[in-house]
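User: These chains co-purify. Model them together.
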Amino acid sequence: MKKQQTASMEDYLEAIAMLRQGEQPVRVSQISKALGVKMPSVTNALNKLAEDGLVHHERYGYVGLTTEGVRIAEDVFHRHETIRLFLSEVLCIDADTATDEACRIEHTLSATTVQRLEKFVEFASICPYGRPGWLESLRYYFKHGEHPPNGCPSKCKGHK
Amino acid sequence: MKKQQTASMEDYLEAIAMLRQGEQPVRVSQISKALGVKMPSVTNALNKLAEDGLVHHERYGYVGLTTEGVRIAEDVFHRHETIRLFLSEVLCIDADTATDEACRIEHTLSATTVQRLEKFVEFASICPYGRPGWLESLRYYFKHGEHPPNGCPSKCKGHK
DNA sequence: TTACATTGTTAGTTAAGGCTAACTTTTTAA
DNA sequence: TTAAAAAGTTAGCCTTAACTAACAATGTAA
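Assistant: Joint model of the four components:
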């Protein structure tokens, strides 16, 4: 029953979950806009997802997620956010690119890798002594292609 | 002319480039084995790639890459290696999983992100004072879910 | 040098997932 | 309250990329 969904189907589930957060009930046209596909593609996808027990969708009516659908959507979204944060916070990729890229990678990363990335971002941001020196140093390295001349900036001591 | 190749076509180019490094001339059967697809799929792919000017392939004969084919294959391989190294060296993903995962992600990462990842791995490994303390600290964090009790281990001083 | 195994190709099928065109249902505004 | 607009669906088509079955070429061993 819990068959693995394709990247495309995961995108539909994720989009529905996002739209559900607004006050409006979710409609085919909204999903279409959100994903940049035409409405017939949405109808088609919803039929498949309904068969798999992940959405409910009455003809010409509203779209909703089943419990299992919510579970998967949240999982995808979690992967998305983890990747986006990593790209943005650690690799200093600009916000829009990071979001785009997260959308593509979120479907191909293993659970383990996502876990590690998550811990990594955590490690980088919840440092007990403020932003760790190595992260400053990394940014310097991104910019200049070499380590800072005097080693880490002052905060490295704090991190130690 | 330089039309963007699909993930699948990139895989074929990459596989051919790998096989070319052995002493044997590259054959359809080898590509088939290397990618885990049947021979007709290979023939089909080679026809497309030949049309795009990326491989040459005489019927019932050897397979080779054109200059442009080599360029793309090397680019894919470079992405692959960068990702694999990051997963393996920084996130401590085991070797086989890292390779598998790199195969999937290599097709979806932007050039910028690959560059940053590359610099990151470089930053982490070519530290002027030996393995940086924060990397040890990161591994501790992976294992125990929290920063090391006494801050970085001794090598952090070295890094600073 | 012929018979058989291996290798490669062709033709046709399937599945996913997009699209357009045409039709139906629902909503809205005159 | 009815006509037009908007929203949704259906049907049919296209592309990618795999597959099997059947056929063709090549290589090898008796």
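The interface with chain B takes residues 87, 90-93, 97, 101, 104-105, 108-110, 112-113, 116-117, 119-120, 122-123, 127-129, 132-134, 137-138, 141-142, 145, 147, 151-152, 156-157, 159-160 of chain A (CB under 8 Å).
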